[in-house]
Amino acid sequence: MNGIVHPCCHPEDRPAPKNEDEMMVLIFEYIDRLFSIIRPRRLLYMAIDGVAPRAKMNQQRSRRFRGSKESADKRKEIADVRERLEREGIPLPPPKADSEHFDNNCITPGTPFMAKLADSLRYYIHNRLNNDPAWSKIQIILSDANAPGEGEHKIMDYIRRQRASPGHDPNTVHCLCGADADLIMLGLATHEPNFIIIREEFVPNQQRPCELCGQYGHGLKDCQGLARDEIAPDQADPVSKETNFIFLRLSILREYLERELFMPNLPFKFDLERAIDDWVFMCFFVGNDFLPHLPSLEIREGAIDRLIRLYKDAVYKTHGYLTQDGHVN
Length: 329
Description:
Blueprint: H1 2-9, H2 20-38, E1 43-47, H3 54-87, H4 112-131, H5 133-136, E2 139-143, H6 151-164, E3 174-177, H7 182-190, E4 195-200, E5 245-249, H8 250-261, H9 272-283, H10 303-318, E6 323-324, E7 327-328
Parallel strand pairs: 1-2, 3-4
Antiparallel strand pairs: 4-5, 6-7
């Protein structure tokens, strides 16, 4: 859910919502669109990030402090540009009240905003269950910020518990929404055959509105504070387009990994599931949210390809895989 909340609360490609109520409406509309694309048949699990694991707390703390300082610096820069343009007599939109400034650090467990978000989502779920036939046929689970752990980890724990239950259907299709690369690793680690990740399509060099006047085609430092009837063609709002989504099918990724990791003439039978576990383990060395990358390994410099070559040599020499049942062998 945090991958939905952040772009709705402080979007980069359009003016920010005026208040928290507008943010909640945007979140509801985003979920509605995802629901209509994915069309779940059995279960919808909405998981908000709770208290982060200890391994990630230091990183999150430093990111929060850095974000707070950058936000204060940006407000000061906007005030300086506004003061300069007002001295020149250039018309500008009225300044935002302090109450309208949204601090991104509010999107963290224990804040009033997160409590309001959880209450709003409960209202939204009850409303859809009563008024939308597609919702009334499925089970809905909401895990708010009071439950510890990151959202994707809570969902993965649920999938593992379901997989271990006696009545589990092995043909169940899972669809996880999020832009983090670690979702790929988590999905592969479940060994579910039908796992799909949906995320927003990344559009490079996307135009952003000016933080002062809200127009397009220029940045804050180049703002001229033009009135609406004087806007140049390249500064008008760009044609509004709905965000496109892309699907990543882990079943196809597994086929590619099988081609990459297959080792002929092994003294034992090649096991794709064990090899995928080893590949996920090796990817830890190029860094993730909990561990920094090793100084000698950079993804941009072909670190993963190098690790695969070394891995194959190691398997031939040691006559075994690197991991077993989630532990280093």
